[in-house]
Structure formats: C-alpha cells, structure tokens
Amino acid sequence: xxxxxxxxxxxxxxxxxxxxxxxxxxxxxxxxxxxxxxxxxxxxxxxxxxxxxxxxxxxxxxxxxxxxxxxxxxxxxxxxxxxxxxxxxxxxxxxxxxxxxxxxxxxxxxxxxxxxxxxxxxxxxxxxxxxxxxxxxxxxxxxxxxxxxxxxxxxxxxxxxxxxxxxxxxxxxxxxxxxxxxxxxxxxxxxxxxxxxxxxxxxxxxxxxxxxxxxxxxxxxxxxxxxxxxxxxxxxxxxxxxxxxxxxxxxxxxxxxxxxxxxxxxxxxxxxxxxxxxxxxxxxxxxxxxxx
Length: 292
Prior knowledge:
mainly beta; 48% strand
C-alpha cells in the first residue's frame, strides 16, 4: 500500500475525534448571542502539492438544536500550513451557550489530491456522506463573546492509496485561538547537509523525549524546513499550538505513522508560547550547538 508521507500530529484511526483546545467559561453562558469565527489549517505532507477539499456546510450542536451554515467553497489544505489559515466564516452571530460537537461535510466529487508527479487523484472519505467529519469537542460561547476557533485538518495522518483512489481519514483538532500561538525560526544549514526531508516536530512540555508518530506520545504538530530564496535561510513555522512549553526536534526523514522507522533526531531546542493567535509568535532558531 502506498502512502502519502505523514508529517503531522495526534493519533486517531477514525474520522477526527480529538480536541486540541477548549472553549470559553461556562459560567458566562446564558440567553443571548455570540459572534463566532471559524478557520481551517493543516499540517504538511512531503510528496503532495495540493489537496482541494470542497466544504459544503458546517453544523453546530447547541442543546436540542443543530445549526447549519452553508460554506460551498474549495480549500487547498496544503496551502494552509504553519500559521496560515482560511476562513470558513467570520463574525457569525450564533446563540450563546454550550455546544456538544461540530461537523464538516465535504463534497468529494469536487475534491482531489495532486501528487508531486503531477497526478490528480480522486479521494474518498468513509462515512462523510452520512455523518460528516465530526469534532467531538464540547465548548461554551459566553454572551457577547467573539471567539475564533481553528479546525486543524490533519489530512496527512491517514491518507492511503487504494484501488479506487486515495482514501482520506483525517484527524480534526479544535483549537481556541485565544489560547494558541505559533513558533517560527531558522535552522543552521550545516545541520541539514545529510537531510533528505528535514522536518521540525513539536512535543508538548519542555524536555519531552522524542517519539515517532506511531507512538502514543507523538508530536503535537510538525513543519517542513524550507529554503527562503530571498534570505538564503532555512526556515520553519509551527502553527496554532496551545500556550505552553514545547520541545522541538529536527529530523532528516519523513516519518511513517504506521511503521517503526527508527528515526533519530539530529538537533533539539525548547520554546514557549504565551499569547493569542494574533500576537503569540515565538522565535526559536535551531543552531549548531543544538545538535544531538
């Protein structure tokens, strides 16, 4: 079975069912409205150039009612890496209160994957037509609040080639934008001399040991290291991480989440995020002295 190389985050084996961030203070909920914004982001893959997903609608479960919002828009998820994101909707007036889950519905007939060789492939998403892509992350919208939530659409976790084209079983995370930020930096060129696919992984907690994607303690997210043609620097950006300490590892090979690749990191450093999406940018350069 051929696989798109996975360079991403948390593990699930079904349609996305994990939480990366919480909602507001439930004590502030009540009758009234909130102004909600929803965005999409993604983690990278190493051998695909485009993944166009056509999002038909988004549903929100609020008590006894299910709210439905028409999107009808195509998103290239592979352009939404690092700190990049795209709006599903912005400043939508919704009822304040407690929400149980949300769902995205994808039109696979208008969606496709383009691999590095230029091939354009159909994709299928199991159960999408019946239940959509469900995020079982409860959250609360206080009255008169205006939160921004980011859906981290981790397509690279489980994307496999079958007889009928590519099958996508994505992992979705819901991130509260007020509790998250980004890590960016440069990587010393001498650390990359023998790197085929240089990647930076972020693990929650300072001094956290390196572990591969197939483990129970894998990275929170990842970023490809790329050459900035304008400056000549090798750079990376890890986007939409919750506030806290992180241990960063530079590796030189793409990790297969379904196999023990015996990957060893070549360098490591630490970083701390403390801020919201708009201003929570931490710089963490990986230098020669960080080599392991």
